[in-house]
Amino acid sequence: MTVFHYGLVKPRLTTLIVTIFLNETAGERPNEEWEQRLRDHSPEYRAFERRAESSEDVPEKTGTWRDLFLP
């Protein structure tokens, strides 16, 4: 039963939820007020925006928890 749930049901439910979300939010833009609040209160968000706007290569290590799990 566990194999059935985690092997078939859960992946399909996840796909369904993501598909519904993408269809419902198609064409919408982020709220400018919330973007500004993120910039004001989150140095990680500001660093994310800087990396997105720059044309530099992505560093091997990001200095976050992801370094522990991602190759």
Protein topology:
Layout (H helix, E strand, L loop, with lengths): L1 H23 L7 H10 L1 H11 L12 H4 L2
Describe what you observe in this structure:
- Helices cover 68% and strands 0% of the residues.
- The chain has helices spanning 2-24, 32-41, 43-53, 66-69.
- With 71 residues, it is mainly alpha-helical.
- The longest helix is centred in the first third of the chain and has 23 residues, at 2-24.
- The chain starts with a helix and ends with a helix.
Name its key features.
extended; 0% strand; 71 residues
Query: How many strands, which pairing sense, and closed or not: the largest β-sheet?
Result: none
Evaluate the radius of gyration.
Answer: 18 Å
The count of strands amounts to 0
Shape field: extended
Distance between the termini: 32 Å
Tally the helices: 4
Question: Portion of residues in helices?
Answer: 55-70%
Unreliable runs = none
Structural class: mainly alpha
Strand content: under 5%
- Write down the overall mean pLDDT: 85
The string of secondary-structure elements, in order, is HHHH
Entry summary:
The chain is mainly alpha-helical and 71 residues long.
